[in-house]
Amino acid sequence: MYDYLTFALPKGRLGDSAIQRFEWIGWASSIEKDSRKLIFVDEQRRLRFMFVKPVDVITYVENGVADLGIIGKDSILEEEADVYELLDLGFGQCKFSIAGYPGNVLHQKDTVLKIATKYPKVTQNYFQKRNQPIEIIKLNGSVELAPLVGLSDVIVDIVETGSTLKANGLVILEDMIDISAKLIANRVSYRFKYDRIKGLIDQLELKEEVL
Ligand code: PRP
Q1: What pLDDT digit, counting tens, does each position of 45-70 carry?
Q2: Are residues 139 and 79 part of one domain?
Q3: Is the CB of 71 under 6 A from ligand 1?
Q4: What is the whole-number distance in angstroms between the Cα of residue 158 and the centre of ligand 1?
């Protein structure tokens, strides 16, 4: 009998798209959408699906409690995750951008740029590469507010449709990194459950080609 293949999936919009991918390949029969249950088990196919906060997906996969996970590249970069990135799933597309008021200057001699962000590591790494001193103000949400009230000069955040920026009178000053949803694997699981994981990747890729 197979060992279980266990997934950590993000609750919310990204998770809904992930479930859709499992529906496409006929693996989602155990998942009850709109349920408050956090774990679903498919005994027949030996699958387990855990639904966790998006920021926690990597923790479950790194620790091996989950063999596989689906999560945005933004979290992988911010967590500096020690996992294998197996497949781009083609949804959850957005980008990291620097945003601020139109005409905001990013480089000004002898001034330290103040940046509000939910992503301090991504921000630090990006500006370190170009040797620019910055001060990071870590926020947990509603980052667009920071420049409006003088908490920061600019923000580093995810931009998807651009409507949050627009609604707050801000614009993209510089695009940084493209983001999309990835299938990730625990390093040990990948070795020991290679055949089943490879089978999953093949099925997902095949569906992607057909659609
Ligand atoms: C995210 C992100 C931006 C917004 C971008 O925030 O941090 O604020 O979505 O999307 P848009 O370009 O389509 O407007 P989220 O909705 O997660 O809320 P938060 O600010 O509370 O983190």
Answers
A1: 999 999 999 999 999 999 999 999 99
A2: no
A3: no
A4: 7
